[in-house]
Amino acid sequence: MYKTVVAIDGDGIGSEIVSAARQVMDKALEKEDIKINWVEKKAGGAAIDEFGEPLPADTIEACKEADAVLLGAVGGPKWDNVAPHLRPEQAILGLRKALGLFCNLRPVKIFPALREYSPLKPELVEHVDFVIVRELTGGIYFGEREEASGEGKDEMAWDKETYHRYEVERIMDVAVKTAQKRRGKVTSVDKANVLASSRLWRRIAQETAANNPDIQMDYLYVDNTAMQLVTNPGQFDVIVTTNLFGDILSDEGAVVSGSLGVLPSASMGEGTALYEPIHGSAPDIAGRGIANPLGTILSAALLCRYSLDAPKAADAIEQAVEKALAEGYRTGDIYKEGMIKVNTAGMTNVVLSYV
Q1: Which of 174, 224, 228, 245 is the one with CA 20 to 30 A from 252?
Q2: Residue 282 region, left (φ>0) first, then alpha (ψ -120 to 50), else beta?
């Protein structure tokens, strides 16, 4: 069986980590008798340099026709002074819009070998394994806005938070389906004591709970959730929330895990799903071969599970990463004395040996 996956290296360390993930994917998929037809396209700063824009139409069309997209990272100081509509990050927003990706899945799981890396006490993170389901195309990030105008103390700017019923219903549906495959618990996060949009959000969450009696639905304000993530993170299974709150809470969850370098993500919706690590392009170490490829490799595992319907390959990748960490292999970003320090290629080879 052949599947088509668009590989977008992006910028900085992107080419190094995407290459690692591709090698691991190709080997793991042998277990499912699936072969990948890799289509290489550009986006971000690399596309600006070659085509004068961060997201060429050719890249969009290739992604629409593919079974999945694997992305490294985009951005870097080289493009800090370009016009706002030409910034490398516009490639991500453009792909989400073009592919109808309204949901971001961000798993937060602490591998036993990395518990000591969390800033929280070991007993607090022992059972941390949750998924943040973030609404991705609505809310204040995509609402009406007005840049600063006026003078002196009267200068002002504003942004509008808007949610339609269909946007909340479809993200709740994803949260429920995700929880049904896990421990059956959803925590809906809002600010319904203050925001009108949050009151609609909570009402629809309650309706969703009533229609899915097999799911336990809890409701928390976002400020309380932020506190609970550092005092009792093990209580969460699936957290579903708005674009703005999800942006903030998912980064907090990443810190709880102890390492940005090992966390994957998936953006899903109406069209081809997009998979990428949560870390940035790290231009300061680009080309040195020392980047941590595990976040991208684990993103590839999500790709196998959700877009290729290849659960055995996904399990093989995740178990290989866990074994590599358990055996003490570490890239520089997570290295501690007494561990086995490896570079990008070294970590990739170790994971390959365990797949």
Answers
A1: 174
A2: left
Phi-psi region at 12: left, alpha or beta (left = phi > 0; alpha = psi -120 to 50):
left
Nearest to 320 by CA among 336, 304, 337, 338: 304
Task: Assign 76 to helix, strand or coil.
Answer: coil
**Cα angle at 321 between 320 and 326, to 5 degrees?**
95
Tokens at 329, concatenated: 């292999």
* pLDDT tens digits along 16-74: 999 999 999 999 999 889 999 999 999 999 999 999 999 999 999 999 999 999 999 99
What pLDDT digit, counting tens, does each position of 263-286 carry? Answer: 999 999 999 999 999 988 999 999
Rounded to whole angstroms, what are the CA distances from 140 to 136, 158, 242? 11, 10, 9
Cα separation, 284 vs 18, in Å, equals 17
Contact assessment for residue 132 and residue 106, using Cβ atoms and an 8 Å cutoff: yes
3-state secondary structure of 163: coil
**Catalytic positions:** 141, 191, 223, 247, 251
